[in-house]
TrEMBL record:
<dbReference type="InterPro" id="IPR019885">
    <property type="entry name" value="Tscrpt_reg_HTH_AsnC-type_CS"/>
</dbReference>
<dbReference type="InterPro" id="IPR019887">
    <property type="entry name" value="Tscrpt_reg_AsnC/Lrp_C"/>
</dbReference>
<dbReference type="InterPro" id="IPR036390">
    <property type="entry name" value="WH_DNA-bd_sf"/>
</dbReference>
<dbReference type="InterPro" id="IPR019888">
    <property type="entry name" value="Tscrpt_reg_AsnC-like"/>
</dbReference>
<dbReference type="Pfam" id="PF01037">
    <property type="entry name" value="AsnC_trans_reg"/>
</dbReference>
<dbReference type="GO" id="GO:0043200">
    <property type="term" value="P:response to amino acid"/>
</dbReference>
<keyword id="KW-0238">DNA-binding</keyword>
<dbReference type="GO" id="GO:0043565">
    <property type="term" value="F:sequence-specific DNA binding"/>
</dbReference>
<dbReference type="InterPro" id="IPR036388">
    <property type="entry name" value="WH-like_DNA-bd_sf"/>
</dbReference>
<dbReference type="InterPro" id="IPR000485">
    <property type="entry name" value="AsnC-type_HTH_dom"/>
</dbReference>
<dbReference type="InterPro" id="IPR011991">
    <property type="entry name" value="ArsR-like_HTH"/>
</dbReference>
<feature type="domain" description="HTH asnC-type">
    <location>
        <begin position="24"/>
        <end position="85"/>
    </location>
</feature>
<keyword id="KW-0805">Transcription regulation</keyword>
<protein>
    <submittedName>
        <fullName>Putative transcriptional regulator, AsnC family</fullName>
    </submittedName>
</protein>
<keyword id="KW-0804">Transcription</keyword>
<dbReference type="GO" id="GO:0005829">
    <property type="term" value="C:cytosol"/>
</dbReference>
<dbReference type="Pfam" id="PF13412">
    <property type="entry name" value="HTH_24"/>
</dbReference>
Amino acid sequence: MTYNTNDKIIFEIKNILGVLHMKFDEIDIAILSELQKNSRLSIRELSKRINLSPPSVTERVNRLQDSGIIEGYTIRINKKKLGLSIDCIMKITMKNGEYNKFKNFIKNHRRSEWGYRIAGDGCFLVKLSVKNLEEIEEFINDISEYSLTTTIIVFSEVEIDNNINKFMEHI
């Protein structure tokens, strides 16, 4: 739910404990937008870019972190430069219902990039980044006793604009 009050936009942010009311305005969105572009920006540089004093920027960044909106800061790794030139996505259907065991397996597998427990046709989606097709076959062999797989080889990635401004347009 969104509404304007004194030039502030207030969003209801759902969390596990219920609804947290937090004042969230265009300056917060600008901070998030700049940090999405470069999370290594210093407070001083960030304050210049959004035209706000460093103490005010620090306060807002801390508030965004404390509220859980900023979950962390990260880097992007070029997997191809590491020799991981093939990506695949697998739909995995469990045969034995040992979901937690499988979650731990994919969580700790050296080539798994992400995994999702899903509803619908299948139980999990898993993305692997591998050096060759033999590594995909090895993964399938490792899980074949307790699951069925459908493997999709990724040809190329579609770059999606995940900038905060895009998401905020429709809230």
